[in-house]
Amino acid sequence: MNNSNRLRIAIQKGGRLSKDCQDLLKQLGVKLNLREQRLIAHSTNMPIDVLRVRDDDIPGLVMDGVCDLGIVGENVLVEVQAERERQGVPSEVNKLSKLDFGYCRLALAWPQELGARDKSWFEGKRIATTYPEILTQWLKREGINASTVMLTGSVEVAPRAGLSDAICDLVSTGATLEANGLIQGETILESNACLIQNKDLQDADKLALINKLMPRLRGVRQAKE
Ligand code: PRP
Ligand code: ZN
Ligand code: MG
Fold first, then answer.
1. What region holds the ATP phosphoribosyltransferase catalytic domain (predicted)?
2. pTM of the full predicted structure?
């Protein structure tokens, strides 16, 4: 549990969501000194600490109560939730809000030289991914027998490196697939960033602070529409 009396928010340290997360905190009026390359940044005007970590670690930190809030992609949240459910460890969070950034799709892709392929082609194939739980569930639903190759990064080079036949990875602009000579196929999950809260949070001061920030968040979201 986070025993600190300061509200602890986990955000991605470096990656697609970092800049938008920092901008959002700023729009909510949270003043931070993020210049130094520190794990924790203390707000100078509110009892808030921002933890900058790998996106994959954010759901677990919030589920375990190490952090009170987290900003994370639904893709990572769904993957960690499925993994924890399988392991029988706590996997619930309160989803406070969907956010208006970080849109991406988790999609299948394969080498361009193979041309158009349908789902049945994946039968017996090896698919590299950072999202083995989501992919395995999808394959099961579709009745496809394929194996997954878990890679935490550089998934897009797996076919060329002979590690897999295809990949299942996040696509935002599509530039990564194109640069690696891959064709995008079926989308298996669509994702946005979202704000999550530890479901056992009871500290009255922290809850009051969250209640103060939520209308501001709604205001920021409405202003964007
Ligand atoms: C994803 C994915 C690709 C990239 C695709 O990584 O793994 O590398 O984004 O984006 P594009 O279609 O705009 O080229 P991401 O930065 O989300 O996560 P990671 O750093 O945790 O792999
Ligand atoms: Zn990641
Ligand atoms: Mg990546």
1. 54-218
2. 0.94
